[in-house]
Amino acid sequence: MSLIKSEDSKKWINAFVAAVSAICGFITIRFLEQLSEWFDLEAKVPNFPITVQVAGIVVGLIVFLVIAKNKNASTLLEDVYAELVKVVWPNKDDVLKTTIGLVIALSIVSGIFVLVDYSFRQLLSIIL
Fold first, then answer.
1. HEC profile for the chain?
2. What is the pLDDT of residue 38?
3. For the segment 39-49, what is each residue's pLDDT rounded down to a tens digit?
4. Which residues are CB-contacts of 78 (< 8 A; sequence separation ≥ 6)?
């Protein structure tokens, strides 16, 4: 059963591009705030906190518009979404069985490592 429908492609692509744009805006804001700490820009630039926020919003909007208007990027995102629609997601029982199997296998392997470590410690304590 696919969780993603092919008719929702534009909505999900726009949401992804918006999230990327928001992350780019946030990174810009954090970078400018870090520059402010290094170079004391708050004292040199009037209304620096507002300027930083506006710069972050402008960078986010520019990233959104560039990605949304770029034909190659739009085609790539549509192709990625089309492939994502084809994915057959496992059901709850399969996920639960696989998770239990992995936990058991990891417990066994970690137990082996603990025994080997303990053995080497005892051997080294006898030798030294």
1. CCCCCHHHHHHHHHHHHHHHHHHHHHHHHHHHHHHHHHHCHHHHCCCHHHHHHHHHHHHHHHHHHHHHHCHHHHHHHHHHHHHHHHCCCCCHHHHHHHHHHHHHHHHHHHHHHHHHHHHHHHHHHHHC
2. 95
3. 999 999 899 99
4. 9, 13
- Measured CA distances, 101 to 72, 97, 108 (Å): 43, 6, 11
How far apart are alpha carbons 68 and 65 in whole angstroms?
5
The single residue listed with the structure tokens 């417990």 is 107
State how far the alpha carbon of 85 is from the alpha carbons of 6, 11, 53, 95, 105, in Å: 6, 14, 37, 19, 32
Please give the model's pTM, rounded to 2 decimal places. Answer: 0.68
pLDDT band at 107 (very low <50, low <70, confident <90, very high): very high
Encoded tokens for 22: 């928001």
